[in-house]
Amino acid sequence: MYLEGLLRIKQALELIEQRLEGRLSIDEIAKAACVSPFHFQRMFLILTGMTVAEYTRKRKLTLAAQELATTSSKVIDVALKYGYDSPESFTKAFRKIHGVPPSEARRPGIRLKAFPRISFHLSLKGDQDMDYKMIDKEAFNVIGMPIEVKCDDKGQISRFWQECHQNGSIGKLSSLGNGGNFLGACMNMQPETGDFTYMIAVPTDLNASVEGFSLATIPRSTWAVFNAVGPVPGAIQHVFERIFQEWFPATGYEVASDVPELEVYSPGDISAEDYLCEIWIPINRK
């Protein structure tokens, strides 16, 4: 199962490379990996730190720059070849990556950037067990503070936690919950961009929102629950990587795309080496 899952991911990456000319939808890529578009985008983002669209764009513009620098092709022809609707949109994207417009790509001595294709290596990992438990949980309400997160802003969530502590929101929020744990809920991910809503929340018995806070319902789901031990956010990020790199390819599950992923923080010093928190991943059987 593990090898099969890795081979499917490899097939999807090869499809991206084969179809850099023209357009390729996330649905087609995910189909090659035999997973849902949401699951593939989430997995790709966790493993590479970028969205599929960002990776594809960088690869297209790498090849486009090479073609402009070494052939007599017209800018408009190269733009259309790599899926851009107009020379203007191509020029804007090209300048953002290479720092110069495509018309200057042939200028002697011009410096262009090359973004290499992802190198995929099959490996068998058995040196560390990955303990988890399965929990079926009924729907429940949470209340908290949401923020829209850009997938390429890796420090945004940490800054949001700091701001909520500093402005007193965390203290106010704790009085609205029915337990001692805080949650970090990753919800409403956009498959095409990887952007999502992150909510600092607590479970609550309230059925209506309170001024300054938002109420949300976490649907009934089956969850795979993993421990993360160590300082946050490093410990959380490491376990997320292992879940998508090792656990999912080794099992017959995929992420349930209509249910948030949860970080569960118990009271304690989150900078301590022995701090324990949990990651709850909603799952479906493929």
Automatic annotation (TrEMBL):
Pfam short name (any one): Cass2
Sequence ranges assigned to domain HTH araC/xylS-type in this UniProt record: 10-108
Keywords on record: DNA-binding, Transcription, Transcription regulation
GO molecular function: DNA-binding transcription factor activity; sequence-specific DNA binding
Keyword Ubl conjugation: no
Entry-linked SMART domains: AraC_E_bind, HTH_ARAC
Cross-referenced Gene3D superfamilies: Homeodomain-like (1.10.10.60), Regulatory factor, effector binding domain (3.20.80.10)
Domain of life: Bacteria
UniProt xrefs under InterPro entries: AraC_E-bd (IPR010499), Cass2 (IPR029441), Homeodomain-like_sf (IPR009057), HTH_AraC (IPR018060), HTH_AraC-typ_CS (IPR018062), MarA-like (IPR050959), Reg_factor_effector_dom_sf (IPR011256), Tscrpt_reg_AraC-type_HTH (IPR020449)
PANTHER family membership: RIGHT ORIGIN-BINDING PROTEIN
Protein name according to UniProt: AraC family transcriptional regulator
Lineage, opening ranks: Bacteria, Bacillati, Bacillota, Bacilli, Bacillales
